[in-house]
TrEMBL record:
Subunit structure of this chain's protein: Interacts with CtaA.
Molecular functions per Gene Ontology: protoheme IX farnesyltransferase activity
Main location: membrane
Name under which the protein is recorded: Protoheme IX farnesyltransferase
Signal peptide: none
Protein family (similarity comment): Belongs to the UbiA prenyltransferase family. Protoheme IX farnesyltransferase subfamily.
Amino acid sequence: MTDVTNTPATEYEAELGDYFALMKPRVMQLVVFTALVGMLAAPASVHPVIGFASILFIAIGAGASGALNMWWDADIDAVMRRTAKRPIPAGKVEPREALYLGVALSGLSVMMLALAANLLAAAMLAFTIFFYIVIYSMWLKRLTPQNIVIGGAAGAFPPVIGWIVATGTFSVEAWLMFALIFMWTPPHFWALALFMRSDYDDAEVPMLTVTHGRPLTRRHILAYTVLLAVLAIGTGFTAVGGYIYLTVAVVLNALFLVGAYRIWNRDEVQAEADSYLVERKFFRLSLYYLFLHFGAILIEASLRGWGLA
């Protein structure tokens, strides 16, 4: 990280939307949804007020992580096309403001989740923020091509936290939901890295495409997708699964496997000829993949709650 905390004043006054953008609202949506599913799929009821407050504080914790990540990665965000318009590199928010916002929201979210739910849930939220900022952003991201593999755990903790809010304990089912996100993350980001060809090179981030080349990246996408399909379909036979989830999982993972095979079964000449159309389609499908799987888990939990499953 370059020293960006003492940069000159921003080019113009920051607006409320700029601070909200610091919290990565798109990522926050996934965090909130998977945490909510984890909480509702648990075999214990949660008072609506406690549940709402808990999800709110988990969302604030996710926003805190986003702000701290943008503070730390401001130097590389500025040279990547995909991130150059973020608030800090665009000159809308000063780096120190993002740092202060992230630290304040981190403390607030953890403290309030402890009061609203339980200490274990708050401790897991604190560990998730620490993992994302220190383990992934500050350490792994610029050190190893396994950055997104190990660092993906940060985005996989929310359903576990939601489950703990409801039950106060860990369980196999919660870790299955964790594993679903964890195994999805590498093929999702590697597909992005394939068609955002120069971004990671320009930023000198050791993504697998940069350190080991695109052919190996394509093989890794296929391998992880196969493992993900086994895990996702297998989850249908557990306590959080059911016929609806299993149907969704089979269809989605069949499509995902076909997409991964098509990525594997081509070279850079073919990819450049069609502007990485296959990789882009796979990436777009991956955006729906988790929402649909966790949506199916939520439906199954609702049916069980109504005594229909």
